[in-house]
Structure prediction request, 298 residues.
Amino acid sequence: MRSGSLKVLRMQTPIAARTVMLLLLSCSIFLHAQSRVLYLPPPEKPMTVQDVIKLSKAGYSADVIIEQIQKKQQHFNLTTDQLLQLKTAKVSERVVKYMINPASAVVAPCTPAATSTPKPAPAPTANLQTAEADNTSEDAVPTDVGIYVKQDGEWTAMLPELVNWKSPGVLKSAMTLSFVNGDVDGLVDGPMSRNNFVSPTEFLIVMPEGVTISDYQLVQLHRRGSDREFRIATGGITHASNDNGRDTLAFVPVRVSPRVYTIKLNGYAGEYGFLPPDSVTSRSVAALANIFTFRIMQ
Prediction:
């Protein structure tokens, strides 16, 4: 019996050893496979409209923001509310155009810029005027007749609004801006201008032939219910170069080239507008005028 038992034990021992070895080999293969598994990082968050606003408020240029959008390969489908958010946050128009249509903007190579501290807000002046000359070159300015504002180093054409003259019996000459018979009140639809700027703001006027810069008027508008109103004459005959109108403001133009002037405004927050000399081409009281309005923010 003992010899038989020993024989069976000798036969079972190699089988058990082989089983253990197979188990160990399987575990080793499994662990080796586990060590080769790649754990990918979580996907990067997409760039949002709020991210664009944050970069703009931080002072980054339009080129840097557009390059970041390209790097993220982000595509926007902006809603009306999002466009209003970008406008309120004063995001560059070039950035907004790129977000709407990436083919509309070309990003210039970015160069390192020295870090600069924000300039303190200038003290407001009573008559919105400055005599500082601009270094604008003639090659950089527009040539089409109109009024422009400098945004992100580029001249952007301003769109006019309509003025309805309220005073009865007004006779107005298109080129001399002469008014007869009492006060002349202009009424503009809407509570505020769609153009919001931060002081100081620089404008450029390209005049037609036969017009002088003194033929343009700068006026202050006042809220009247859901509209805006201004007065440019207070009786008698008044020319644009005079300061008899209670809402007419003085400004200092700087000549850039023939028929082209720049005007840098530095003043209080409020609603203002440039009134061109050809704003009314009819002597009818019901005639409409053009005015280029803007709001200076604090």
Remarks:
- Residues 49-104 form one domain.
- Residues 2-35 form the longest helix (34 residues).
- The first strand starts at residue 146 and ends at 151.
- The chain has a mean pLDDT of 74.
